Amino acid sequence: MLLHDYGLPRGYAVNDVSAVEHLSRDPLKYQAGVYRKAAEILKDQGLDSVLDVGCGMPEKLLRYVAPVSSAITGVDLPESVSAFREAERFAFGDWIAMDLERSPGLLGSRFDLVIAADVIEHLRDPDRLLAWICAHSDERTWILLSTPDRSTLGVSRRGPPRNPHHVREWSRREFRRYLRGRGFGLVESLALREPDGYSCHLCVCRRPHEPCGELARALGEISAEAEADSGATRTTLGRDNA
Known about the structure:
- The chain has 242 residues and is an alpha/beta fold.
- It is built from six helices and seven strands, in the order H-E-H-E-H-E-E-H-E-H-E-E-H.
- It has helices spanning 32-45, 59-65, 78-81, 126-135, 172-181, 213-241; strands at 49-53, 71-76, 93-97, 113-117, 142-148, 185-193, 199-206.
- Strand 2 (71-76), helix 3 (78-81) and strand 3 (93-97) form a beta-alpha-beta unit.
């Protein structure tokens, strides 16, 4: 296994994902166990601030997390966030439109708990997701990363995924290997049964003390892109005020 293969077998075939799957028709159907686990950690550890990366329609945040957190931030694609941002029932959170694959900004905050529920399999470069999470966490942050367990989906270990919206899929062992190879500390590994019969693999993690290698590269790219976007904004404002 090679580290730059994201823990997957050499020669693994990926999907060239050109269309992104947006809001689910049933936002409570999948990953409920991830959000229940998040609520459990928040209560047991006395934590508050939550960042949900790729939050989708925030029904699960409303049901499971909002009762135990007063500081919820959700990030998703602009076309997804626009569909619910103004809804009164979701006024409990701050909703930010952002594309993690295309010049994601930095929020300038660290969070007690970060969720990325079944997001990583949709990304061409999952290191960018992990690096972005590192930029918004510290050594005390609880990080919940989940992804479908390929070994329960009945597809080849060589890929590509059957789901056209998934770039790649991991087995439980491969996903743990990938996260450990990037320096994440694994606190707990859970198999969560989903309604369609497959399992979602949830890793409860701690971030690396110092991102290095591929994560350092991705974090450097994201920081440079955020600074370039900020500089462009300052230039535009300066012209407007001239």
